Amino acid sequence: MVDALEIGFAIKDRRTELGLTQTQVAEAAGVSSRCLWSLELGQNPGVQLNKLTAVLKVLGLDLCLKEGEVPDQDSLKQKR
Predict the structure, then answer these.
(1) pLDDT for 62-73, tens place per residue?
(2) How sure is the predictor about 7, in pLDDT bands with cuts at 50, 70 and 90?
(3) Which ranges in 18-48 belong to alpha helices (H)?
């Protein structure tokens, strides 16, 4: 499972690879510079999905889901 910090690293790496500033990406994605800044630092785990996907689109990145391991059913029941 990828966490907010890994997504943030990917966003920042791609932005710098493309030679774009945070302001340029934020404006193109329709988000605030603060939103992008916090995304890059992995400090915005509750970001709205539409904002995240807008940033990813500007950078030519995709968000993909793939099947992973299913947790043990007994441990799921204990968490309830």
Answers:
(1) 988 888 888 777
(2) very high
(3) 22-29, 33-40
CA–CA dist 25, 40 (Å, integer) = 12
**Distance between CA 68 and CA 66 in Å, rounded?**
6
> Can you read off the two tokens belonging to residue 48?
């709205």
Tokens of 80: 């309830």
Tally the C-alpha atoms within 13 A of residue 18's C-alpha that lie toward its C-beta. 16
Structural contact between residues 59 and 70, judged by C-beta atoms closer than 8 angstroms: no
Residue 41 neighbours by CB under 8 Å, 6+ apart = 8
Contacts by 24-27, CB closer than 8 A, 24 or more apart? 25/55, 25/58, 25/59, 26/55
